[in-house]
Amino acid sequence: MGARVDGRSERKVANREIILSAARQLIDTNGSHGFSMRELAAKADVSVATLYNLFDSREAIVSACFEKVITDLRPDFDAFRGVSDLSVLCGVLVASSDLILNSVSGAMYLKLSEDLSVVKPFLVEHRASEGFAPELEAAIRRGELNEHADVDVLRTVLEAVVGTAMRLEALGSISKEERRHRIRSGARLALLAEATDLGRNSLMLDRSRQ
What we know:
About 75% of the residues lie in helices and about 0% in strands. The protein is built from eleven helices and no strands. The longest helix has 29 residues, at about 1-30.
């Protein structure tokens, strides 16, 4: 009996992965609203009944796709923690955008950036909503940012710089090179507004490397 239950559980896990993979392909091609449950079942080579046995609705499948993307990327983002100075932080912001856009299609990214009802609760649950705030706080402790710098405001500005450039590339309005340039230069300008002499020296070093 136990072996039979384990076998069913394994099939459920396997079917779930197959369905999410197929759904992601359809989202990449048609957008998150561009497929029906019947089309997804055909793509995944499962029955519609199997879809509903594993997911309550099409929206639940789309949400599960987004959560899987975020979960898969989380270890890579954790590797960016602990930057040594502000010039490195500018590079990390560019590298973060590279990581995301190399991992998902433009359509998937646009949906992720628009559907905060899916993304935000997941980020809060996994304590990832603080973004790069710890790196900014560390820069204050190192003396690179003014001690009274508003970390929340600065984080929001950096997120806007990165998010806007990524969205423009996902829409096909700018190239990869232009997106990277906008993020690095925009981040540098935002950080310069709160930088000490030490921080400005670091940011000028970053500029000289380009």
